[in-house]
Design brief:
Blueprint: H1 2-22, E1 29-34, E2 37-43, H2 46-49, H3 56-68, E3 77-82, H4 86-94, E4 99-104, E5 127-129, H5 134-148
Parallel strand pairs: 3-4, 4-5
Antiparallel strand pairs: 1-2, 1-3
Helix pairs in contact: 1-5
């Protein structure tokens, strides 16, 4: 049942990634979930906003903080289609998010590339789940960059 829930919410994050793709942005999407309900959505808007920090995770977190009236989200889960970069890891750390579920790995810019002695960049209480709908998430990314070549 829980894996079905993870897949459902990752599909919602994929819809956000598709919005980014359709806007010629790197196709990363995210949703923030609390009590089995989406409270915030985001997709990359780096090009649109001319802002290198306008990643899906950051935009979704900002929306979630506003929605909840809080700067911490210990009871929330972030679903994101791509492994978070170090910048997003920092934001997720400070927001004390309860769980991060991501789809595709990011060999080039993902946080795993920067792990030192397997030390997680997230808050100690944050649970991390990887590879949910990995192939679907990776396909959208590969398709985007193939079109750019």
């Amino acid at each position: 049942m829980l894996s079905e829930s993870h897949e459902y919410f990752m599909q919602q994050a994929l819809k956000e990634a598709q919005l980014a793709f359709d806007s010629d942005e790197v196709p990363v999407g995210a949703v923030v979930v609390m009590n089995n309900k989406i409270i915030a959505r985001g997709h990359n808007q780096v090009e649109l906003l001319n802002d290198s920090t306008a990643h899906a995770e950051i935009l979704a977190l900002t929306s979630a903080y506003s929605s909840m009236g809080s700067k911490y989200l210990p009871d929330a889960t972030l679903y994101v289609t791509l492994e978070p970069c170090l910048m997003c890891c920092g934001a997720l750390y400070w927001g004390k998010i309860g769980r991060i579920v991501y789809g595709a790995s990011d060999e080039k810019n993902g946080f795993h590339k920067h792990l030192i002695a397997n030390h997680s960049p997230f808050h100690p209480k944050t649970e991390v789940i990887s590879s949910v709908l990995r192939d679907e998430c990776a396909w959208l990314m590969k398709n985007f960059f193939q079109q750019k070549r």
